[in-house]
Structure formats: structure tokens, C-alpha cells
Amino acid sequence: xxxxxxxxxxxxxxxxxxxxxxxxxxxxxxxxxxxxxxxxxxxxxxxxxxxxxxxxxxxxxxxxxxxxxxxxxxxxxxxxxxxxxxxxxxxxxxxxxxxxxxxxxxxxxxxxxxxxxxxxxxxxxxxxxxxxxxxxxxxxxxxxxxxxxxxxxxxxxxxxxxxxx
Length: 165
Description:
oxidoreductase activity, acting on paired donors, with incorporation or reduction of molecular oxygen, reduced flavin or flavoprotein as one donor, and incorporation of one atom of oxygen; arachidonate epoxygenase activity; endoplasmic reticulum
């Protein structure tokens, strides 16, 4: 009982102390957050109701994870077009952070992402991506693969990815 009381007190204190730093939103419960405020079967409608009460930018907690919701065309346009640099990052998923250590085009953010993207696009262009010649080579390799599969006559076969050897 003491532990639960301390946990509730800490959660309430945290939400009160952070009110100045974050958009408004419903008070979150410890561990479950605002899941009880949301209808998971009709999420757009429940977010619409919350936006009517708290405005087009509000905060909800999905479990312990804080989520800032932008509801409405004008707010999303302002965030993604007018303030694109401030909103260009991705959320951090703990599993991806542990597996990929912040590297990779899909899981990185900021300057690392820009450098990896630039490198990948340059490399793909050097190999002919976006040019007509690569399409013809892919079609040729696909024809060789189809012929190889037809020639097996239902036997087990091993695919050689290094060419049509």
C-alpha cells in the first residue's frame, strides 16, 4: 500500500511539475497512462474528443511513453512544412536502439541519418539505380531465374544469388 501510494504521488508530482514544459492533456495514471481515456477500437474519434477539450496539440501517455498529438490539417502542416527541421526526427524505440545502436538508415536520426541517406543514394546512383540499364539487367536475371526453376522439374534446388551460374 505504501509503495502504491508513493508511485501515485510520484506520477502526480511528475505530471504537475512538467505542465509548463509540455502541451496540455488528461492526467495520466501510473503504468497505464491515458489508455483508459482512449477508445482503441475507434482511436480517431477519441483523439478528436481530446482535441476538442485540450486543443489541436495535446499530450497523452500510452503506458509510460509520452506522445504529443497533432490533430488537424493546419497544425500538421505547420509542424511538417513550416517547422520541418524541428520535427524531422523519429521516435526512439528501445528494441531498435539496442539492436542497431543508432545506426542504419531506418533507425538513425539527425545528422547520422542525413549522412547515411546521402551515401546510400550516391552509391545506388553509381550502380545505375534510376537508369534504364538496370531495369533491363533485372529483367534478364529474372528470366534466367524462371528458366532455372522450370528446369528443376519439382526437385529441390539451391538458388545462387551471385548470378545465373
